[in-house]
Amino acid sequence: MGLTGIEILKMLPKKNCGECGVPTCLAFAMKVAAGQEDIGACPYVSDEVKEKVGEASAPPIRTVVLGSGDNKFEVGGETCLYRHEKRFEHPTGLAVLVSNQMDDDEVAARLNRFNGLRYDRVGVELKADLVAVKDEAGDEGSFTALVGKVREECPDAAIILMSENPQTLKAGAGVCGEHKPLLYAATPSNVDDMVAVAKETECPLAVKGGTIGETAELSEKIQGEGLKDLVLDTGARTIKAVFEDQVVCRRAAVKHKYKPLGFPTITFPCEMTDDSLTEAMITSVLIAKYAGICVLSDIQGDVLFPLLLERLNIFTDPQRPMVVQEDIYPINGPDENSPVLITCNFSLTYFIVSGEIEGSKVPSWLLIKDTEGLSVLTAWAAGKFSADLIAQFVKKSGIEDKVKHRSLIIPGYLASIKGELEEELPDWKIQIGPREASHLPSYLKSWQPEG
Asked: What's the pTM?
């Protein structure tokens, strides 16, 4: 249970020094309780208080970090059962499986697809996140060689090391160096050795039981050994069982604060079917219902892209609209004579408008004005897409250095601000574009600058 602001205040030095960036200790305590400040921002608080407050305010599902530097992958940190209650924190990680029993061509093909299947949407790069390296041959040498190949060819991939032999995992972790992998997995038969390797390498450890109950027992035992960064595999390998286990784990952790299950989960659709479409269907269910990581046998564009879009939609914060960055977007290779259009930064508007411009084949400059994610009419009604604000943006955007003409095309729904906008931009001629984006191609093909 999280501490209240008053309870945190009692543990603070009450200097009201403001060195934390907040004027008073009371205000600071309230911000810490709300999750807006870290208790460590106070330079005078003791380590004991930091630990106590940190433990009390930690999310019910622990955040586990893999990788290193700019190529970190975070899983867990979830605080709710349903997205509308707050938001989901860390998108489900999608992993592709390679093993030391595969031939070199198959391994190369899978790693090439991992690197090549990347998509840009709403200014976010959509891609798979992890590579699972499995020791199917039971050979440490070929396993570590494969781990080295993955690190070299997929430097931004988080890595899952899979072997029944703790020493093989230790060798694989040594190849990864500071790029921390997930060690898979501690089971009832090897738990002591796996814990020792995880402690020595300082890597997160996966816990695999035959049932969810056995997994919880193993988790509790391992936590007693001092390990805190765990990922759970309940052992379920059917869609019904794994679905039920994901729900039970999340509910037990979030609603009942049951610490043995308060960790992210890892699932294996690759072990549930031999059919790629069925595997994708299973993965889609697990993305929606709480899986922290899904390991796939392979990734193909026609299967991966829908999963990435599903994940993007589910893990987008419902309290914040999806937006694109305010900027000038060149489409179809525009030059100094190309038309200039402007619209809002609501992502759906951007993708519809930019898509129609691309389809027209007319080189164009698209100005995206920050309207805090509101659509054209809503932004105008809220005073965030008014003539004065548009004029300020046009002047500072740098578009005047990119084109010879001074004609600006505004959305048809903003026709009423044409006169006002011409007063704000006396050097520009304001042209009223179509109301519907679908009419842009024909409009642009016949477009001529004014003045």
From this structure: 0.76
